[in-house]
Write a structure and sequence with these properties.
By secondary structure, this protein is α+β, with helices and mostly antiparallel strands. The protein is 32% helix and 37% strand. It has 6 helices and 13 strands. The strands form 3 sheets. The chain has a 9-stranded antiparallel β-sheet. A two-stranded antiparallel ribbon has the order 1-2. It has a two-stranded antiparallel ribbon with strand order 9-10.
Length: 265
Amino acid sequence: MGDFLKFFQDIAKGFLLVPFFRMLFYGIIFSAIITFMIGWTEGVFQPSQTFPYVTNATHSFWIPVVFVSFSFLFAFAGYLSNLQMKDDILSPVRRKLVGYWEVKAQTWKIDRERIVQAHVVTHCTIGIEDVGRKLILHFDVTDSDVFADQSLDITNVMIAFQGEPKKLIYFQDHELVLKNPVGTGSEQISCARFPFLGVLNINSRNDNIDEMTGLWYDIDNSILNLARRMPALKGLDDLIHGIESGSITFKGPLSFTRLRAPAGI
């Protein structure tokens, strides 16, 4: 008997570790109380001299319906509440990352009809989603040599917390609008898909995160594919030769530096 009770306790502990089943367990208890109170006030339940000392005098069919309905209603409501209140081990890191950032990356840009390596600067606002409580990166692309001024939100964001330093990793695959169409005839395009990956080391000083440094990676050689549509572009042949020989890869240093947010952000 003792072994059976221990086995039952182990199952119950495992059962209660699952959030939905835990909420269902509490919902069943609460539903039993509510169903009994309603049945008693309506005269459905009557005292009895034998166990369980109460009887369903009218044999009403709504008793099990109300009980089951309340059980799942309370379980579902409690489960959603548990998700909203969930605070995992990365929540403190996410809150420290929220803010306005200057983003500086070494990439290739068009300078007087020549493709050259240079640094570009954009700005990013890091926030936390209301429902999933995950990070969201809002970028403002301005003063680009190729792309029109526009904004984009990146939600494919994760924090790698094993090891030090922790890393912020984000991926974007948005279609960006070009400042001017490139190419000729049927090959002309006015927007371009630019998938890239950013991997940043999270640098924490005095329990604050004000700087992140790492690398960005152009996954599909989007810069080269865009440059190929500009036949008069100087330096393109050297760039293609460097890529084919392996001396050039489309990646570069990437840094985030915290700034004081402008008014209205």
